[in-house]
Specification:
The complex is a heterotrimer. By secondary structure, chain B is mainly α. Chain B has helices spanning 7-34, 38-43, 55-63, 66-97, 101-113, 122-132, 138-162, 166-174, 179-208, 211-216, 225-235, 240-271. Chain B has 2 domains: 3-43; 65-235, Orthogonal Bundle (MetI-like fold), CATH 1.10.3720.10. Chain B has 12 helices and no strands.
């Protein structure tokens, strides 16, 4: 028994570097954030204990609710549009044996590019009134306003850029999942006379359901964490119409130096993420067990 | 013949064509406009360039301080990849092999930390780094990005180690190998493809990374290529041509890297999400 | 070579008792086979002896030395795995020499020993190849080479033939038998295939549910099974079993009624004890111990399916009262389906087992 125990001890050393780094960078600061959420801190002087004041302030701040609402809108958008497009395109790729690889590369190109580059391209070359395509169209053909500058359209505009960036990843994942559908099931259905749509609905879809479910959860989690594109393209404006929890927190920390409030928002973000994360962990346990 | 021209097949082709167009059009726009002077772009952003003069590119390279940015990007990405691959391959070994409860908890910790928003730890970390004078230090920032990439890498490599038959561990044990020797001589060589995949994914994530990099790499000397471009885009917004040339400089290495290694990318991306 | 001794060896996985307290003594140079149905614990037992699993209680002694808490390398054992467990990224030479390298042996000396082992197993032309470039039989030999190069006290084989096709299995079986002779080594071999057990073993250990059911030479197990499980496990085709009852007990023989065969009493001369009249028993008789007899004698049975294997045939018969028997027919008679034969059970060859399974 002692020999087995000794071996166990040396195994802990293997995981030590990773755990240590993760603890120092993520765990400890996260715990600090938990505490900071109950204080008023400007990053320099001593934090002042506030109790629940930050939370009270946030809950009565209309911008905060705006941000939550925007996050929810964002989640709904991302759970529908890119998922649907990805599913359809992935199933179309199944029959194109030779060109599959080429299509996948093309679809992934927007995904692999830096958000800074993507945001810049769309902001300047497409939406911009002076140099962008929309501006061009506005001058020559149809009256078209800058969608980023209008309260009613800004969020959807930024969302579409992120959809352009992200959907390729979903398509590739779904495609890989569809390719794993056992061919004998497909053949059996075909022999029974099922047509393309029926095969998709009754054979393919049930088989890739775990993958779809996982993507569902992932998209939900990341929708509440999303930051880059909004920050780069609108900074939360105009008039907080694109304000998300992440940009709001960032603003509180680095613009108005109310780190306590930023921490509180961070907690809210993790709350939503935690709910989805529990589902994620439960589901990956299930699939590992299977 | 008639099958490929039937209405549904035609629609499928149209849809795919449309998707390809939408995916590539913005990139093509960047390319053609990188060669045009600003006035031409404003006139008509959709027109082809008159000449392929590299004037914009030269200006962009200087304006974006890309010589410094390139070095910083390489250092940042290199360090992050190294740290991530080494730490996660080490960690993946016991997580795949050992069965007592503690290991399940560690696995759970890593699974959960995938979902932690950066905002949950960013702020205290920033002010801590500031106090330690590590803002702008490429290696210190690399540690943060490595920590963020660790969970997924560990999970990916763990799945990889699970495919290595445990019998090999037994054989090595009977041969007298300690766990470290088993890892070094048996498991690690067999993990190489997995490590390469992880390296590629982490490299891409780090190169493109924005939030952490922009927060911690403040000050021109510490800018990565993408940050340098962003600064330039803010300052030189008057000249779209130079801006697009800068975007090209930032994009092209990524595209080249991606095209060269696309199989590994796809493999890594789908590994966790799809069974088998 | 070495002796192996197990003293009150036990193994528990969490709350499940996998190996019940077990005692065993293996002599110098013996080839002992652990055999039993899946789940009986034979592989676990082998792993305990190898040192791959810690024991829950009890002792293991190799050559008198208590190795219970020692790692495999200090026990001086070598193991050949079912799936070969060759290191895929190493050449044959590196595979065979890995243990020596870990032990710190200098390269020149390693090469010498590896070449010697390769010569014995005719692997010399393959030393620079990787396992995936080898056939199944060659891989198995590399696995054996890895074992013999260490000059271990004990060789352990974990179902080494299961992954080979029938032809290769036969060949490799002969090679292992020859290896045993050449090396004069103590070998412990695990299999679920009783034919392998019968052909290779000096002694067989029959296991079920973590218990030793019987230990003996192949012939002992065949001709003198200790209980109904061993009787049914060893020998192919399987022994015929019938429900029966003791009807009378005489001095040197016992009379039994077998309801499913035919009215009347049957003689049984193999009982070692004197059970009470009326005791319910299971009667066991092998297919070669049911012989044909003249009309009006024995009991009648109708022939169902006949399996012809060349020198022998097996007729599956059914009696009027519903008993199914497998009968060996050496005579080249064409048993026609549906025909009736008259059969007799040889009294010196039938076994009686109590309701608990013990041999009476």
């Amino acid at each position: 028994m002692s020999q087995a125990a000794e071996r166990d001890w040396s195994y802990y050393l293997f995981v030590l570097p990773a755990l240590l780094l993760s603890a120092c960078v993520i765990l400890v600061p996260a715990l600090l954030t938990l505490i900071l959420a109950f204080t008023d801190w400007d990053g320099v002087s001593r934090p002042v204990w506030l109790g629940l004041d930050n939370f009270r302030d946030l809950l009565s701040d209309i911008t905060f609710w705006r941000a939550i609402f925007n996050n929810v809108k964002w989640t709904v958008i991302f759970l529908t549009i890119p998922m649907a497009i990805a599913l359809v395109v992935a199933s179309l790729l199944l029959t194109r044996r030779r060109s599959q690889r080429v299509y996948q590369i093309i679809f992934l190109l927007p995904y692999v590019l830096s958000p800074i580059a993507n945001a810049s391209i769309w902001s300047n070359m497409i939406f911009d009134q002076r140099s962008g395509v929309l501006g061009y169209l506005n001058k020559r053909l149809l009256p078209m306003q800058d969608p980023l500058g209008h309260v009613s359209t800004a969020l959807y505009t930024v969302a579409s850029v992120d959809i352009w960036h992200f959907w390729g990843y979903l398509a590739v994942v779904f495609f890989a999942a569809m390719r794993q559908v056992p061919t004998d099931q497909l053949e059996a259905a075909y022999l029974e006379g099922a047509g393309g749509w029926q095969i998709f609905r009754h054979v393919t879809l049930p088989n890739i359901l775990p993958t779809i479910a996982l993507m569902f959860v992932m998209v939900t989690i990341f929708s509440f964490l999303t930051f880059d594109y909004v920050y780069l393209m609108t900074g939360g404006g105009p008039a907080h119409s694109t304000e998300l929890l992440s940009t709001l927190a960032y603003g509180f920390a680095f613009r108005s130096f109310e780190v306590g409030k930023a921490a509180a928002i961070g907690l809210f973000m993790s709350l939503f993420g935690l709910i989805a994360a529990v589902a994620y962990v439960w589901m990956s346990r299930e699939s590992v067990r299977r | 013949m008639s099958r490929s021209h039937s209405p549904p097949a035609l629609m499928a082709r149209l849809l795919l064509g449309l998707v390809v167009l939408v995916s590539l059009a913005p990139l093509l726009l960047v390319l053609i406009n990188a060669f045009k002077p600003h006035a031409e772009i404003v006139q008509n952003p959709l027109s082809l360039p008159g000449s392929l003069a590299p004037a914009n590119f030269k200006a962009a390279w200087i304006g974006g301080n890309f010589s410094v940015g390139l070095v910083n990007s390489l250092l940042l990405t290199g360090t992050t990849v190294l740290v991530t691959v080494v730490f996660s391959s080490l960690a993946a070994f016991p997580l795949a092999r050992r069965r007592i409860v503690i290991w399940k908890l560690v696995t759970l910790y890593f699974l959960c930390s995938v979902t932690v928003p950066i905002q949950l730890f960013l702020f205290p970390l920033y002010f801590l780094y500031a106090r330690l004078g590590l803002i702008g230090n490429v290696f210190a920032t690399a540690l943060i990005i490595a920590a963020i990439n660790l969970p997924l890498s560990v999970m990916l490599l763990r799945t990889y180690v699970l495919t290595i038959p445990a019998e090999l561990d037994d054989a090595a044990f009977i041969d007298g190998a300690t766990p470290w020797q088993t890892f070094l001589y048996v498991i690690l060589p067999l993990m190489k493809p997995g490590c390469v995949t992880v390296a590629v994914i982490v490299a891409l994530n780090t190169w493109n990374e924005f939030l952490i990099t922009s927060t911690f790499q403040q000050g021109d000397a510490g800018f990565t290529m993408t940050l340098g471009y962003r600064a330039m885009a803010g300052v030189m917004s008057a000249d779209r041509g130079i801006m697009m040339a800068g975007a090209c400089i930032v994009i092209v290495p990524i595209i080249a890297f991606f095209l060269f290694l696309q199989r590994l990318f796809v493999e890594g991306m789908t590994a966790g999400a799809v069974k088998g | 070579m070495a002796t192996l001794e197990l003293q009150k060896l036990e193994k528990r996985f969490e709350s499940v008792q996998v190996i019940r307290p077990m005692d065993l003594l293996v002599a110098h140079g013996e080839f002992v086979v652990f055999v039993g149905p899946s789940g009986c614990g034979k592989s676990t037992l082998l792993r305990l002896i190898a040192g791959l699993e810690p024991v829950s209680s009890g002792e293991i002694r190799i050559d008198g030395k208590n190795v219970t808490n020692l790692p495999p390398v200090d026990r001086n054992v070598a193991m050949v795995f079912q799936n070969y467990a060759l290191y895929p990224h190493m050449t044959v030479e590196e595979n065979i020499g890995f243990g020596l390298r870990i032990a710190g042996m200098p390269k020149a000396q390693r090469r010498e020993k590896v070449t010697e082992a390769a010569r014995i197993l005719k692997l010399e032309p393959y030393l620079a190849r990787k396992p995936k470039a080898l056939s199944g039989g060659q891989r198995q030999r590399v696995a054996i080479g890895r074992a013999i190069v260490k000059k271990p006290k004990l060789f352990l084989f974990d179902e080494p033939l299961s992954n080979l096709d029938a032809e290769l299995r036969f060949q490799t079986r002969l090679e292992i038998a020859k290896l045993h002779q050449d090396l004069d080594a103590t070998m412990i071999y695990v299999t679920h295939d009783q034919v392998e057990a019968m052909t290779l073993a000096d002694r067989i250990v029959v296991l079920r549910d973590g218990c030793i059911e019987q230990v003996g030479t192949p012939m002992q197990l065949y001709l003198d099974p200790a209980n109904v499980f061993v009787a049914g496990f060893v020998g192919s085709p399987k022994m015929n079993f019938l429900d029966a009852r003791i009807s009378a007990v005489r001095e040197d023989t016992v009379w039994i009624t077998i309801p499913a065969l035919a009215p009347g009493d049957y003689e049984c001369r193999t009982l070692r004890s004197r059970p009470a009249v009326g005791t319910k028993i299971t009667l066991g008789v092998r297919s070669e111990h049911i012989e044909e007899i003249g009309a009006d004698l024995g009991f009648p049975a109708k022939v169902g399916i006949v399996e012809r294997l060349g020198s022998t045939s097996y007729a599956y018969v059914e009696t009027a009262l519903g008993a199914h028997l497998c009968v060996e027919r050496r005579v080249q008679r064409e048993d026609r389906v549906g025909s009736t034969v008259r059969l007799r059970l040889m009294p010196e060859c039938v076994f009686a087992f109590a309701e608990t399974g013990e041999r009476l």
